[in-house]
Amino acid sequence: MDILSHMLIVFQEPMLIFLVAVGTFAGIYVGAIPGLSGTMAVSLLVSFTFAWPTNEALAIMVGIYVGAVFGGSRSAILLNVPGAPAAVATTLDGYQLAKKGLAGKAMGVATMQSVIGTVLGVIVLCVGAPVVAKLALGFHSVDYLMLAIMGLMMVGSLGAKSIGRGLIAGCIGLFLGTVGVDPQSAVSRFTFGIVYLNSGIDFVVAMIGLFGVSEALVQLCDMDAIVIKQKVDKIVPSFDETIKHLPLTLKSAVIGVLVGALPGAGGDIAALLSYDVAKRSTKHPTVPFGTGAVEGIIAPETANNAAIGGAFIPMLTLGIPGDAITAILISALTIHGMRPGPNMINTTPNLFYLIVACLAFASLFLLIFGMTGIKIFTKIVEIPKGVLMPLIIVLSVIGSFAIRNSLFDIFWMFGFGLIGYFMKRYDFPIAPIVLGVILTTLFENNYRRGVMLEGSISGMILSIFKNPISIFLFVLIIILTVTQTETYKKWQAKRDAKKEAQAANN
């Protein structure tokens, strides 16, 4: 039986298509609520679908996965509150468009790019899974460490008007990420004898507080501001506009697939990296990044959905989860008697291509449900602040508690909300704090692992020059460092001014 025959099995079972549709629809609305992540929804479905046939269980889980990754962009654009960590970068320009009355356009672009990203990720999964998996296996501890360093260097792109202020915020995030029991030595760090701090700080709680509660506090202090009427006459991006941004779309999709295929990285890091690349490489954005640039939505939304296909690659070809949701899916497959790994494509090709087909259908339903719900969602922004802001705080409380069923997380959430409020008042960026908390585990674990493998810090540093991937990442870090210096920026500004003057004379 060939590939097409395996994928056409879905058409022979209408119930599978229905379940993918239900899962995608539910995932969009779950992902739009801060704290109610796709990981939580899929984990609940493992026990709920225990007695279901394997195909039906996978269909609804895949649908929720795709829908939830996209759903986070809704609240990010409308309320400046990312529904999921993968939507943090989307807030930077998406919310600015909503403040201009263009939330409909922003959500239309986010929907279209999420669909394109998902489709491109599925194509890579279907065609190049073994190749990408082999590339992912070539990453060593020092490579992950440099990937984390590259991520930390993005503080200049995440809403920071000053590199210094961005670095301060990033360092605060790194510090907060180390709170709790050390995973290797079991020593309590910065817990001050408080038992509740032993489990550390969940970065989703930090995200909800810094974005959700702080924004609500800022808005409540400005109750006299006029509610902006949203324009929803043009939602679907034009074909010419989509083609115009195709190079950025493809670039972001490649980043999403590759980062998604790295175990432990995931769509949140992919979205942040692609936003940074877009900001550095786009010479003539529609408006400056951070003020409502369409490119600032295209890059992260393409990358975080393309990372879905990337995350399935190590899961299905190596039995290694690409992110938290694929880790849950591995356990679900194991419960149903399947064993993801190197022989899965050969022994059970029907299951592999069933997942590919479900992802393809999920992208179709993402387009349908994503576009049809925009006019309803845009009404949220027009709700009076006296009603909307308390509602955001209530949802933030529910979302924070739902993560670990801990009241202490609610206190943390309000604490981060106050920190975010004062940082906004004094013009400090808040996104780098979330970035620092997210990257702490990746940075710390791979630094220690690299030192232990090489026997010393110097040995770990020298190992960078033994591997082509390490050398490539090292060169990238040098380039990123140079391009963030004031000297380089002044030289670049002079060069651009000279080119514009030459063009005007000609």
Please characterize this protein's 3D structure.
- With 506 residues, the protein is an all-alpha fold.
- The chain folds into two domains: 3-466, no CATH class; 467-506.
- It is 72% helix and 1% strand.
- It has helices at residues 3-7, 9-12, 14-31, 38-48, 54-79, 88-99, 103-137, 141-152, 163-177, 203-220, 239-244, 246-260, 267-281, 295-318, 324-335, 344-347, 349-372, 374-378, 385-404, 407-425, 431-454, 457-462, 468-483, 486-505, and strands at residues 180-181, 188-189.
- A two-stranded antiparallel sheet has the order 1-2.
- Strand 1 (180-181) and strand 2 form a beta hairpin.
- Helix 5 (54-79) crosses helix 6, helix 6 packs antiparallel against helix 14 and helix 7 runs antiparallel to helix 17.
- The termini are far apart.
- Percent helix: over 70%
Strand content: under 5%
Provide a count of the helices.
Answer: 24
- Please tell me how large the radius of gyration is: 22 Å
